[in-house]
Write a structure and sequence with these properties.
Elements (H helix, E strand, L loop, with lengths): L2 E2 L17 E5 L2 E8 L7 E4 L11 H7 L5 E4 L15 H14 L5 E6 L1 H12 L4 E7 L12 H15 L4 H4 L5 H14 L12 H16 L12 E6 L8 H9 L4 E5 L6 H4 L1 H13 L1
Parallel strand pairs: 4-5, 4-6, 6-7, 7-8, 8-9
Antiparallel strand pairs: 1-2, 2-3, 3-5
């Protein structure tokens, strides 16, 4: 596995919005990633939502977490700056992730997954339990979870609404429609635009649809044996998640031994973005415990 490094090594205290785009080749496919924070302790690897590229990671969360640890963000295969075709199953995404982590020379990592990334994170922890020290699952749910296979039918009307109102669909999909939710949505979307140079490529329509197939398949597949997970786990969501219904977070907390659950009030799928200061503090405390 050859690696193409195109920046200073981790350890430089660069804000996420200025972090260099890097690639590492895994099985002949280049994977795009960014690497921020000090090169000390256990690195934290993040996996993001459906259609997300590197510029869809919230800089407030990345910078907050990178104050005290190395934080690695990555594009799935076939998305953004990564090559190849987007996988049609969450299992393949998890396999890619495990190989990517090994290619980066990491033996133990903490993993944070949001939405689709939370599906991938669970699968990584089940397949490679010795690789994952601590697990943070946000805005997500278990295989076969309630309503996960319906995410397309929830999403398309609100994507259309976004087009018609000239707003990013995440304004409607990730946040509640209360004044509090709307204000948080606007601030979040501003943060995503803060990077001006060397932005990542957006997802192609084909990759977007292939990922939706993987999400739908995850929603229809048999439940996994989450009782096997011995990885300390923190589960976080809003109380009004319309994409991955909030009941799934409670279900995860019941099924994963000794999991901790945080539910934010008047918050949706993007509860961690709405409450980013509190979330970073809780995540740091959990990772450092």
């Amino acid at each position: 596995m050859n690696s193409t490094q195109t920046s200073t090594p981790s350890g430089s205290q660069t804000s996420f919005i200025n972090a260099t785009n890097q690639t590492i080749t895994v099985n002949g496919i280049p994977f795009a990633y960014r690497d921020t924070g000090p090169a000390t302790g256990v690195p934290l690897v993040l996996f993001n939502h459906w259609g997300a590229v590197l510029d869809n990671f919230d800089p407030a969360i990345i910078d907050g977490l990178a104050q005290t640890r190395r934080v690695i963000t990555t594009d799935y295969r076939g998305i953004g700056g990564s090559g190849g075709s987007a996988p049609l199953t969450v299992g393949e995404m998890a396999d890619d992730a495990i190989q990517l982590i090994h290619a980066l020379g990491l033996e133990t990592v903490d993993v944070l997954g949001f939405s689709l990334g939370g599906f991938v994170a669970q699968d990584i922890a089940l397949k490679a339990p010795n690789l994952v020290r601590r697990l943070i699952l946000t805005g997500t749910g278990p295989a076969g979870g309630s309503g996960i296979d319906k995410v397309g039918s929830v999403t398309w009307p609100l994507m259309l609404k976004g087009l018609l109102t000239l707003r990013d669909p995440k304004f409607y999909l990730f946040f509640t429609s209360t004044p509090n939710g709307r204000r948080s949505a606007s601030l979040y979307l501003q943060r995503l635009k803060a990077r001006k140079k060397n932005r990542d490529k957006g997802p192609t329509p084909s990759a977007f649809l292939r990922q939706l197939k993987a999400i739908t398949a995850w929603g229809k597949q048999p439940p996994q044996d989450l009782g096997r997970l011995r990885t300390p786990t923190l589960i976080v969501n809003g109380d009004n998640d319309i994409m991955v219904p909030s009941v799934n977070s409670s279900a995860l907390a019941k099924r994963i031994p000794n999991a901790q659950l945080v539910i934010y009030e008047d918050a949706g799928h993007g509860g961690i973005f709405q409450h980013h200061v509190d979330f970073v503090a809780k995540a740091q405390a959990f990772l450092d415990a």
